[in-house]
Design a protein that fits this description.
The protein contains 15 helices and two strands. It is mostly helical. It has a single domain, classed as Up-down Bundle (Growth Hormone, Chain: A), CATH 1.20.1250.
Length: 410
């Protein structure tokens, strides 16, 4: 990542915070842009990194499959609460202090993961990780738009998928090839988060600091009147793509290992989420010049075809076909999410960016977290992951049909 530094003059629309004026030099705007994109990527990589270890934790500590679902759900709930209470904070105190605090909290969560010796430590680490990620995603996303609205919209679509793809596969690869992986992966990520916090200190503030920071902590989903209609129109696309992401995050690794006859490795189990997020990131790059409405239509169609293919693969017990369906569904993930973001981003003012992005991610994480927790509960009580997968997959297909109908009707 380029970190060349230079002195920059704040734009007329962004007044730097008083706390930053004594710093004699700053990261260049391009370096600051890359830094904030890397933070979103890093936070999402950190959130998916523990996933390959869950089976190891379960064997070592002897907790039930239901508690595995709780470990997943706790993170999603923590992110939601952080978005509700702190999603608007950077619009009031600035992007820098929020991002510095969030990066240091992420580093602390890595330390808790590395030293965990029981389920309580795992849940605590997920809570700290979720709270800091929720606050940071809104602040970094708004900071990217402050610097460049066009590239910021692309980065906000791309970075979460790249982070999700990298985190789980990185952890799985370390388990297979490197010593002490359950400590090494967290140590590497912890160092990255500390370095990011240091670099943010040298970043120019891009938000116009204003009063009302304490009042902004009162939960309120703030959506400007001109954004409400478009947000309702893209909500089906947001819900469908993130529900599908929850399907793969909660059931994907176990399903893929089961389809391979139980002979799958940790890397193979991690590859489902990697293929999904990787194809989504590639789709974002390839289709970045399409109109938002075309992206929404393409996303709904690809999601429908991809999930139908994946469900057929479960019935036929074909892991290769499952990965093919996953790749097609990932195209739907990337294009659908990008279309929804670009529809909304062009309508919001600078001082509303973090608040509106917080609302978008609240919808997204609700769609991802609640069905995934329900799926885990179903597996634990039905005893059949295939039956739960059919139910979950059918729900995603129905949501994709609704999103596609909405785009065609428009």
């Amino acid at each position: 990542m380029t970190t060349a530094c230079t002195t920059v003059t704040p734009s007329a629309t962004a007044r730097p915070a008083a706390a930053t004026r004594h710093v004699p030099w700053r990261l260049s705007p391009n370096a600051a842009f890359l830094l904030q994109a890397s933070m979103t990527l890093g936070f999402l990589a950190g959130s998916s990194a523990p996933t390959p270890f869950y089976a190891i934790y379960q064997r070592a500590w002897g907790f039930s499959s239901t508690m595995l679902t709780v470990a997943f759900g706790v993170y999603a709930i923590a992110v939601l609460l952080a978005l509700l209470f702190g999603g608007r904070l950077s619009d009031h105190v600035g992007r820098r202090p929020v991002l510095i605090g969030a990066a240091l909290a992420q580093a602390a969560s890595m330390l808790i993961f590395a030293s965990a010796d029981g389920l309580q430590d795992l849940l605590l680490a997920r809570v700290v990780q979720g709270v800091s990620a929720g606050v940071a995603i809104a602040a970094a996303g708004a900071g990217l738009l402050d610097i460049d609205k066009g590239r910021g919209a692309l980065a906000n679509s791309l970075a979460p998928m790249m982070g999700t793809a990298v985190g789980g596969l990185l952890a799985g690869t370390m388990i297979r090839y490197l010593p002490a992986p359950m400590h090494l992966v967290y140590a590497v990520l912890g160092v990255v988060f500390v370095m990011q916090a240091v670099l943010v200190y040298f970043m120019a503030e891009t938000a116009a600091v204003k009063g009302g920071a304490l009042a902004s902590l009162k939960p309120r989903l703030a959506v400007p009147a001109g954004v409400r209609g478009p947000l309702l129109r893209v909500a089906p696309a947001l819900v469908s793509v993130w529900t599908m992401a929850g399907f793969y995050a909660s059931l994907g690794p176990t399903l893929l290992n089961g389809l391979s006859g139980g002979a799958g490795s940790v890397i193979l189990g991690s590859s489902a989420l990697f293929v999904l997020a990787g194809s989504g990131a590639l789709a974002v790059l390839v289709t970045r010049n399409l109109e938002p409405h075309a992206l929404l239509r393409l996303g709904a169609g690809a999601l429908l075809v991809g999930m139908a293919t994946a469900m057929a693969a479960v019935a036929l017990r074909e892991p290769g076909l499952f990965l093919l369906g996953t790749a097609v569904a990932g195209i739907g993930f990337g294009t659908g999410f990008q279309g929804a973001l670009r529809t909304i981003i062009g309508l919001i003012q600078a001082h509303e960016r973090a608040a509106v992005l917080a609302v978008l991610f609240v919808i997204s994480y609700l769609a991802m977290g609640l069905p995934a927790m329900a799926a885990g509960y179903g597996v634990a009580h039905q005893g059949s992951i295939a039956s739960t997968a059919y139910e979950f997959g059918s729900g995603v297909i129905l949501l994709a049909l609704l999103a596609l109908f909405g785009t065609v009707r428009r």
